[in-house]
Amino acid sequence: xxxxxxxxxxxxxxxxxxxxxxxxxxxxxxxxxxxxxxxxxxxxxxxxxxxxxxxxxxxxxxxxxxxxxxxxxxxxxxxxxxxxxxxxxxxxxxxxxxxxxxxxxxxxxxxxxxxxxxxxxxxxxxxxxxxxxxxxxxxxxxxxxxxxxxxxxxxxxxxxxxxxxxxxxxxxxxxxxxxxxxxxxxxxxxxxxxxxxxxxxxxxxxxxxxxxxxxxxxxxxxxxxxxxxxxxxxxxxxxxxxxxxxxxxxxxxxxxxxxxxxxxxxxxxxxxxxxxxxxxxxxxxxxxxxxx
Length: 292
Fold this sequence. Notes:
The longest helix is centred in the last third of the chain and has 24 residues. This protein is an alpha/beta fold and 292 residues long. It starts with a strand and ends in a 13-residue tail after the last helix. It contains 9 helices and 8 strands.
């Protein structure tokens, strides 16, 4: 249920949310940007026989088709009920211009931000001709029950794994997908910090894939504003402004190592500039340096 803001009404903030915000503050102070603040249960290891990355089996194709249909209705419903508010999309032309396979990067701050990218993808000229795959955590694929678990396992997802053999299949799938000129969404921050507005330091993986397979990275950074709707957790539902930037291409004169580092640095600089331009403040962190 959602509530309009009433200056005379105080809606209690969720203790769980407050605890997560406190943990995020602690993690930023310690510089542990790749650690999730929520305490998840131990992850069940994803073995090769438990995943069909390219949906080659008939059963996988059927499940994916059903999951995407249900997912489309779910997305329409949360947009209609203002559980997800996309206020503005900037730079859709940059997404439309990329005709090859590509890696899409995005900041990660809410479980619904992947649905935001899904909605933007469906607004683009690629809807119907390309598939958007989403890289997800191992535990999201193996541990999650119910509807969300069904989505995680079947809505064109690419789960990571702590098993080496499974990761070999993952890498082969990434190569096939990019060669087929489809898109892969990766969260290079490697953590979800609820409603965290700053860009976090980026891991190298997404950019290594782009450099290895000679495809561009399309940086997306979502900025946020409070809406006048209070969610069930007592906090304002955020209005998302989706900022798509011009694609970053690997340099043919550089090695994979040089390209992945250069592409990562360019991606972060783009996100930093969007953050500072939108919020009108310089990007700083509370992290205490080890020599202090």
